[in-house]
Every structure is written in C-alpha cells, then in structure tokens.
Design brief:
By secondary structure, this protein is α/β, with parallel strands linked by helices. It has 15 helices and 21 strands. Bound molecules: flavin-adenine dinucleotide.
Length: 508
C-alpha cells in the first residue's frame, strides 16, 4: 500500500487553511505551519481587556466557499459557525456630511442613488447589469480554474475585450453614472482587495454583484470564530498544526520539492508544498536562487505592490448605537489621495477611513456596555520611507481626533484599550514584500495568467495559494485559490508527480 503523500502547507491564513483542509480531506498527510503563535494570518485575533479584535477581514462574502470546506468532511457549516447578515453592507459618509447606505436591495439602492442624483438611477441599474455579466465570467467561469499556461489566457481574451477589462473600475463606472459622489460609491470596491480604483481592471467590478448575490455576513464571535472552526475541522480530519514554526528554506532535489527547513534547523519532508505566505516573498526568501528562472529578484522588484494599512484596534466603555457595522468615512480628496498612496507613495496629511463596529451585529466581541472598534487608514507601502516606529502613535491620535469630530464623540475619554499595526507589521510579522497589505495589485497585467501561478513553474511539487496568486486577495479570492490548487494536485500518484486534471497533461 502506498502511504499518503506528505504535504506541508506554509502559512495558516485563509488560503493555507482552505488548502490544508481540502488536501487532508483527500487523504493526504498535511502539516500546516505558521510562523505566528496562532493561525489566521491577516485574520489573527488580538484579545485585550475582554475585547476580541479581529485583525483583518470583517466583510464576509460568498459564504458557500466556506460551506464547501465543511461539506468535504461530511459536515454542515451551520453546526459549527453562525453567520449573521449585515445591513447596510456599508454606510458611506462623505466629507460634506452626506450619507449613502449601500445595501444589496435593488429598490433601496435606487432610492439612495436618487437622493444623490435622480438622473443616475437608470445608469446605476445598467451598471449593476454590467457587473452581473462581469461576475458571470470573472467569478463563476474563471475564479476557480488555473491559469497555468498562456493559452488559458488567450482563450478568454475575446470575452475580456467584450467586457472592457482594459478599463479601470473608475472608468467603467463613469460610463454609467455622472454624479461624482456616486462614482465614488460604485468604484471603491478594489480598495478591499488592495487596488486603486483608477488603475484596477474593471474585472473587479464583479465584487458589487457578488455582494448583492450572496450578501455580506459577519461571523458570530468575529472572523476569528471562522478561523477557529476551520482549524477544528482540519484537526478533526487528522491534520497537524504547528504554530511558531517559520519556514526558512524550500528544499529542492532535482527540480522537485523535497521538504521544508524551518527555523531552528528542523526539516519537514514533503512531496508537495503549498505556500500561503506572500507569493513574491516566498520566491525571494524561500526558493533557492538556483531554482528561480522567472521570479528573479529584479523581476520581483518590478511588480506593482498593493498599498499598506494603518489599523488601530480600540475599545470604549460607552456604546455608540448610531454607528453602522461598516462605515466608510471619506476625506476631502479621493483621486488625489489615492494618487498619493499608490503612485507618489507619500503619507498624506488627510485620509479616508474604514470604521469597523462589530458590536452592532454581535455584542459578544466586547464586555457588556462596551464597544469594539477598529479604524483602518490606507497608507503607502514601505517605499514611502515613513518611520512608523516614530510616527505610529501620533498617527493614531490623529485618527482618534478625526473620529471624535465625525462620529465617536468622547472617544479618548471613554477609551479602555487600544493598539495599532503599521506597514511594518505586514513586513515583519507576516513576511510580506514592502509591507503591502494585499500582496501585488490587481491591475490587468498582474491578473489571471499574469498573477503568480497556483502551480509553480520554478519547482515541481510547489503550489501557491493566497492573496498574491490567482484569482487574488480577499476571502473569496484566497479561498478560491485553494480550490484551484486542489484541482491541480487532485491526481497526485504518491510519488509527487502531478497531473493537471483540467488539461489532462503531466506536469511532473
Ligand atoms: C486590515 C485588513 C482588512 C481586510 N478586510 C477584508 C474584508 O473585510 N473582507 C475580505 O474578504 N478581505 C479583507 N482583507 C483581505 C484578506 O484579509 C486577505 O486577502 C486574506 O485574508 C489573505 O489570506 P492569505 O491566504 O493570503 O493569507 P494571510 O492572511 O496573508 O496569511 C499568510 C500566513 O503565512 C504565514 N507565513 C508567511 N511566511 C511564512 C513562513 N516563512 N513560514 C511560516 N509561516 C509564514 C504568515 O504568518 C501568515 O499567517 C483585509 C485585509 C486586511 C489586512
């Protein structure tokens, strides 16, 4: 009898967790390692003074991608996890005081659009219809299939031309609505996956329809409850989890993966390695230079990296029931601020913020009578040269001051606890190139075939999942990347030789 192929998954972010579950469910022997002391990656949970602060993702969409993981183990997700609907999806507050409640309900959305510009209601409806068409191709048709070969890309070019994928999300939106504020409302989604709406391919306009189709959810207990449920699922299938274990080198023999050497010198033998760390960093730091023909250091340097984030997690001893679960607080500038962040890479004195108030949906994430918050400010990645060790505290105070004026009066008087992360966190704790929060940007020339391939073209037996790989960042993207990898290695024959079930050709 052949023994089960040994798999090491490097990184317990959502992509790594999903890949580990899928491969363990196939009967492979999976060891999931992470350098941090707890799993989740960007979805790490900080616990202070009775508060559970979700470190990253809070907008849960396409929940069927999570349901599938439980189904693989013959389980029902609802017996392990409760997802609560969030309404409105987002409350968008403009600098001039106007408010747009963004929901998944066509009629309510038409009323909101009419509040801003009655003449744009028809254009808005046509934009939604366009978003649906893009969704049908970009998500349903292509979101979970590999783009390993140039011909995979060539096949879809005619559809991409028809859908105008060469346009940015902003330019696409401008073709449908005239009001500038509505253009902002309909174009901000790329920021959720690390893209500038002015340069992100309009394929990402699919997010608007994806949210409408399946809703926006929040897990009871926070996103950390999803991570815990997935860990429990993985362990129940017989998988092994090792935290505080950092991969330092991919061991390669004759062009094939042989295992992983971890900090401290221990070796984990493997016939398959799935890397969930930041894709460019995996190539630069773990794959021996002798095995890298495509992803040389100079090529990795030339990629366009996403913006980073400053996030402050704080709790108050007072509740603010008028604040929605997800609020976007727009500053005075939109295009110019994005230009500072993405192109000029300078830390601006103004900002636009996302405020997370999960207590609105689930009071259990704060002590009784208290409120749990995080405020997130998109900032340039580390090429800005900002000295965050020196600037961090002052920046947090600036955000608090702004929130006191806009929507959390008395914030600092009622503060119980606070902590923050800066771009240094993404670089130092999460091993991400340039401290980018979402790996490489979702521009056209870094999407699909042009993104990091899910099956490495450098080392046989190496697969990649997560934000830097196809299809991209965000929970639906990284969960789909695990599905792609699962499909690619479904036919492993025990020696580690792999066959791409879609092409039916041997890659090993
Ligand atoms: C603040 C914030 C808010 C967000 N909000 C949302 C949201 O609301 N909705 C949404 O869908 N998406 C959101 N996102 C994006 C989403 O969180 C990410 O795209 C996604 O979680 C990334 O998952 P991943 O699989 O790429 O792994 P990551 O979460 O990046 O995890 C990778 C893991 O690999 C580990 N690792 C790296 N190198 C090594 C090594 N050498 N050895 C061992 N371990 C290693 C790291 O420690 C880490 O745990 C947000 C992101 C951030 C930062």
């Amino acid at each position: 009898m052949k023994s089960a192929p040994k798999v090491v998954v490097i990184g317990a972010g959502f992509g790594g967790l999903a890949a580990a579950i899928r491969l363990q469910a196939r009967g492979f022997a999976v060891t999931l390692i992470d350098k941090r002391d707890a799993p989740g990656g960007r979805a790490y949970v900080y616990r202070d003074a009775g508060f559970a602060f979700d470190g990253g993702p809070t907008v849960v969409t396409a929940p069927f991608l999570l349901e599938e993981l439980f189904a693989l183990a013959g389980k029902k997700m609802e017996e392990h996890l409760t997802l609560l609907p969030v309404d409105p999806f987002y409350r968008i507050r403009f600098h001039d005081g106007r408010v747009f409640d963004y929901t998944g309900d066509a009629d309510r959305m038409a009323v909101e659009v009419a509040k801003f510009s009655p003449g744009d209601v028809d254009g808005y409806r046509r934009f939604v219809a366009e978003s649906q068409k893009i969704f049908a191709v970009g998500f349903e048709e292509l979101g979970d299939v590999p783009f390993s070969r140039a011909r995979d890309m060539l096949k879809i070019v005619p559809k991409m031309i028809k859908l105008r994928s060469h346009l940015s999300v902003w330019r696409l939106v401008c073709k449908y609505v005239k009001d500038d504020a509505l253009r902002v409302v309909l174009s901000f989604h790329p920021l959720l996956v690390g893209g500038n709406p002015f340069t992100t391919t309009s394929i990402y306009a699919l997010i608007a329809f994806l949210e409408r189709k399946w809703g926006v959810w929040f897990a009871k207990g926070g996103t950390g409850a999803i991570v815990q449920a997935l860990i429990d699922l993985f362990i129940s299938l017989g998988g092994t989890l090792e935290t505080s274990t950092e991969a330092e080198e991919l061991l390669v023999e004759g062009g094939r993966v042989a295992g992983v050497r971890v900090k401290g010198g221990r070796t984990l033998p493997a016939t398959i390695v799935v890397a969930n760390g930041d894709a460019p960093a995996i190539y630069r730091r773990l794959v021996p230079a002798a095995s890298r023909k495509k992803y040389t250091d100079s090529r990795l340097d030339r990629l366009q990296y996403s913006m980073s984030l400053f996030v402050s997690y704080f709790g108050t001893k007072k509740t603010y029931p008028d604040i929605a679960h997800h609020t976007i607080l727009l500053g005075p500038r939109y295009r110019e601020l994005l230009d500072d962040i993405f192109e000029k890479k300078v830390l601006a004195s103004d900002f636009s913020l996302y405020l997370h108030a999960p207590t609105r949906t689930d009071p259990s994430v704060a002590p009784p009578g208290h409120e749990n918050f995080y405020v997130l400010s998109p900032v340039p990645h580390l090429d800005s040269g900002t000295d965050w060790a020196a600037e961090g505290e002052a920046y947090q105070q600036k955000l608090f001051e702004s929130l006191e004026k806009s929507c959390i009066p008395g914030l600092r008087e009622n503060l119980v606890t606070s902590r923050f992360i800066t771009p240094r966190h993404f670089a130092d704790d999460l091993n991400s190139e340039k401290g980018a929060a979402f790996s490489i940007q979702p521009v056209l020339m870094q999407s699909a075939y042009f993104r990091f391939h899910n099956r490495s073209e450098e080392v046989d037996g190496l697969y990649l999942v997560g934000a830097g790989t196809h299809p991209g960042a965000g929970l639906p993207g990284v969960l789909s990347s695990a599905k792609v990898v699962d499909r690619l290695i479904a036919d492993v024959d025990g020696t580690g030789n792999t066959r791409d079930p879609i092409a039916g050709s041997h890659a090993g």
